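Human: Note token order:
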Amino acid sequence: MGLKFVTNIILICLISLLPLKGYGAEKPAITAIEKPVGRDAPFLDKGPAPEMAAMPIIQKLENGILRFDNMTINKQEGYVRVNGEINMDEGLVEYLACGPYGKLHESILKLDVVPYYLQIALLLIDLEPGNNPLEFQGQQRAPKGDLVELWISWEGKNKIKVGCRAEDLIFNNKTKNKMQHTHWIFTGSQILDGRFMADVEQSIAATYHDPFAMFDHPLETGSDDTIYFVNKEVVPPKGTPITFEIRPLPPLKAIKK
């Protein structure tokens, strides 16, 4: 039994001890460097936060595939798939993906997933989160963590499956081209005051560096919140069902161009 496997089992056990707060649950006190301003401020659902049910059972299917909540986990091939939908088909964004109670006014995708459960699924495919989180939103440095590729697929015209890298959904308004192809970083968000902050903020994948998002990217453009827009030439209409796939990358396969 490898050390990495044992470490991830310990992490899963620690996560399971977190209080099961609902989406957008009460937020911890925010320090001066963390306090969001302007359109970076939380835009959470104003209604009562639903209580999270007891953790669902991880079901073992054929060929080593696991089913956990609404996620598909393939340990042999090394991926996690999550269902969701197109949330924005135009406009300025700071996130590739958020949960259903996240900052949906600036996220291309809305994923039907509990971030708390997604974290466990990622640990099950041996991904390790970073241990040197960003200090504030837009900080000018790359976050740390295991490297992944993010892929999006949906049913296009004539029911033909369409798939692309996550970066292709994002338009760089400075270069007037799609976002540079790059790896993404599994930061794993943070635990503050006993709360998993990705559950509180519902931030899953950030284009504008975010210390609480579960995934971020290494590009310098991540410190500028005015660059990235929806790539209208690629993104299908709002409401289109999508599949969000996370694939681990060996360190040497990280894209540096």
